[in-house]
Amino acid sequence: MNDTEFFSRERKAGYDPAVNASMNVLLLGTGALGQAAALVLALSQVGRLMLVDFDEFELSNATRSPLFGTSKQRAKHKNLKVACVAEQLAERTHWSDAPRIEYAAARVQELGDAPFAEATIVVCCVDDDPTRAWIATRCHRHGKPMVECGVAGAAGSFALYGDPEGPCWQCGVPVPTGRRVNAGCQANAIELAKQGFAAMTPTLSSVVGAYMAEAAIQFAHGKRDLDGRRVYINDIRRPSIEIIDESYSPNCPCDHAIGTPVVQLTTPVNGSARELLAELEQHFRSPSILLPAPYVVSELCPGPLDDPNGSCQRAVRVGKPDWVIGRHPRCQACGGSSELSADTSMRVAQSIQPFDDDLLDIPLATLGLAPSSWVAVEVADGAVAYAALPIGERPFVSVPKPRRGRGA
Q1: Which residues form the THIF-type NAD/FAD binding fold domain (predicted)?
Q2: Which of 128, 238, 249, 379 is the most exposed, fewest CB within 10 Å of its CB?
C-alpha cells in the first residue's frame, strides 16, 4: 500500500498527513476522555503521543474506557491506566510506525516544564481544577496551545486556548482554593452522586474526546475557528451545541508573559531551598521562591474515618505539596498514621523566604519542584522573574509496536 492509498480518505477530507506527523501531543489524563482523544489522535497518525497519568484502573472504568487494559496487561503494568492505554494504542496502530507512543506513570507536576517545552500542543483531560490551573500556567509560559475539557453527567464542554495574548483557562475560572482529595474514580463518582450529578456516560466521553482531538488537529492545520472559545454539549441525549467566546482577564493569575528569559540554575532538586536561594542571590536582589503549588506544612485532622460526624481538629504534620496528598491525613488517635504538629492550625506555604528557617533545609523535590521546573522568583521590587532548574533524566517510557510497517 503506497502513501497516497494509505491517506486517501484523509487527503480527500482536507487533511495533510505531513501536518499530523509534525504534531507532538502531550496528553494529560488517560481516563475515559483521554482515551477517546488519544485513540483518534493515534489513528490520525500524529507524530508522537506523550501520555501522562498516575491513576489506576478500576472495574467501574470499563464501560467508558475504549482502551481498558486486558487482564494480562493490567497484571503486567500493576493496573496503571497510562501503561495499559499506551500498550493498547500501540496494538491498535500496529500497521504503522506512527505515532511514537510514550508514557509517564506520574502526576504531571512531577515532570516539571520539560514535557511542555517538547510538545507542540497539550490535550488536558484531568479532572480537578488545581491541576488544570497548573497545566494552563505552563502552557502559557511555554507558548503552547491547550485543549481542555470538563464533563458532568450528560453535559460536557471543551475549549481551545492557542493565542498567547488571548484568554487562558484561568481567565474565566476563580483561583482554585483549598485542595482536592484524590480518592479514586469510584469514590469520586459516589461523591458526585451525593451532590446530584450522574457519572459520565460512555457516549459523552467518546464525543467530547473526539471533539478535542479534532480541535487539536485543526489547530495544527492553521484553522483557528475555535481559538479562545468553549463548546458546550448541553445534553448528549438531545444533541445540540452552544459556542461561547471566552474573555481575557487582566486579573488572571496565569503568567501571560510569554518568552520571559530565564536564568539556568545548577542546584539539583535534591538540593535544599537554602542552596537554591543562595544561587538565586547571585542573579537577583532579595529573591524569594514562589512555589508552584501550595506546600502543606500541617493540616487539621478531620476525626475518625469511621465516624463522619466525629471531630478532632488537632494539627498533624504533612510536609507535602497539596497535589501529593490523597485523603485527609488523620492523627494516630483517630486511626491515622500522622504525627501531631506543633502548629495549632492548618499551615500552608506559598513561598520560601530567607527567614523561613523551618523550610530552608527541605529538598526542592519535597517542596514540589521537579527537574526542568521554571522557578518563579519574586525580587526586591515585587516583580517576578524565572530561573530554570537542571533537566533530569527523561521520565517517559517508549512503547514498541507489535509489528512494524503498513499493511491491510
Answers
A1: 22-253
A2: 238
Are residue 42 and residue 133 in the same domain, yes or no? yes
Q: How far is CA 344 from CA 236, 316, 341, in A?
A: 49, 9, 7
State residue 188 phi and psi, 5-degree precision. -65, -40
pLDDT single digits (tens) 88-106: 999 999 999 999 999 999 9
Residue 154 has pLDDT above 90, yes or no: no
> Same domain for 245 and 287?
no
Q: Is residue 408 part of a domain?
A: no
Instruction: Name the pTM for this structure.
Output: 0.91
> Which amino acid is present at 226?
L
- Provide the total of helices (H) and of strands (E) in the chain, helices listed first: 11, 15
- Residue at 313 is within a domain: yes
How many Å apart are CA 212 and CA 41, to the nearest integer? 10
Note whether residue 407 is domain-resident: no
Model confidence at 323: pLDDT above 70: yes
Closest CA to 374 of 292, 268, 293: 292
C-alpha cell at 136: 494552563
Residue 306 DSSP code: T
CA gap 384, 393 in Å, rounded? 28
Domain count of the chain? Answer: 2
Asked if residue 216 lies in contact with residue 41, where contact means CB atoms within 8 angstroms, the answer is yes
Tens digit of pLDDT for each residue in 257-310? Answer: 666 667 999 999 999 999 999 999 999 999 999 999 999 999 999 999 888 777
Q: Which residues pair with 225 in a beta bridge?
A: none
Domain residues for 378?
Answer: 266-388
The verdict on residue 190 lying in a domain is: yes
CB count in 10 Å sphere of residue 403: 11
Q: Which of 40-49, 107-116, 128-137 has the lowest mean pLDDT?
A: 128-137
pLDDT at 190: 55
- Are the C-beta atoms of 30 and 81 separated by less than 8 Å? yes
